[in-house]
Amino acid sequence: MELASGSSMAVTRHPTIRDQIATTLRRAIADLELKPGQLLIERELTERTGASRPSVREALRQLEAEGLVESRNGRGTYVRALTLDEARDVYEVRAQLEGLAARLFTERADAATRDRLSTAMDALRAATEQGDNSRAVLDAQAEFYAALFHGSGNDVLDRTVQGLQVRIAQLRALTLAVEGRDQASLEEFARIARAIESGDAAAAEREAALHIQNAARVMATAHDLLSRSSDS
């Protein structure tokens, strides 16, 4: 049966309180404000969010379904720490996705998006050289990738990486804590940008994948930080 002319199937839905709390906690986990292994106390979360305990409990159940927190019998709910194998799995997928994004960006991006990427690169360089603001570095990296995936012109690719975003942000913050990684990472981003500017799509893909492979190696060191946080 055909829908009547002019009929609409659009549904207007505003985020529930549970969804708003889950979004706030998800961001705090990605930013390492809530660290791997940290106990999440409902009373404290209620005070911080201004929401009721039942709403906070529902949000925690949602995050548990997403694998971001875990309940331990008789001990409470904790931020879930990625295992080293899980982190490696994420990096393997990222190397493919981000390499493809860099190649497509080189082939497809318009002038405005290229300017956006260049501006993000300038911000990343300034934040790294400042040397004392990891939040600014992470924000600049996130903007670089947002421009990269947008400029790829592939919505499926963009949506796929969004599904990994919390884990990606968490791993970026962990690896950035390793001494010297900020400068090494800056040079890797610069090589990606130079390959894009030269119009060499194959080189851009190669440099983007190499950046992720290097980050995966650094993760072996950063995983010690994650383990210590989990044990505390």
CA-based gyration radius? 20 Å
CATH topology of the largest domain: Four Helix Bundle (Hemerythrin (Met), subunit A)
- Biggest sheet record: 3 strands, antiparallel
The number of helical runs is: 10
CATH class of the largest domain: Mainly Alpha
Question: Which structural class is indicated by helix and strand composition?
Answer: mainly alpha
Give, in spatial order, the strands making up the sheet with the most strands: 1-3-2
The portion of residues assigned to helices is: over 70%
How would you spell out the order of helices and strands?
Answer: HEHHEEHHHHHHH
CATH architecture of the largest domain: Up-down Bundle
Number of strands: 3
Distance between the termini: 61 Å
Please report which band the strand proportion falls in: under 5%, 5-15%, 15-25%, 25-35%, 35-45% or over 45%.
under 5%
Gross morphology: globular
The domain tally reads 2
Provide mean pLDDT, rounded: 88
Looking at CATH, the homologous superfamily of the largest domain is: GntR ligand-binding domain-like
Low-confidence stretches at least 5 residues in length (pLDDT < 50)? none
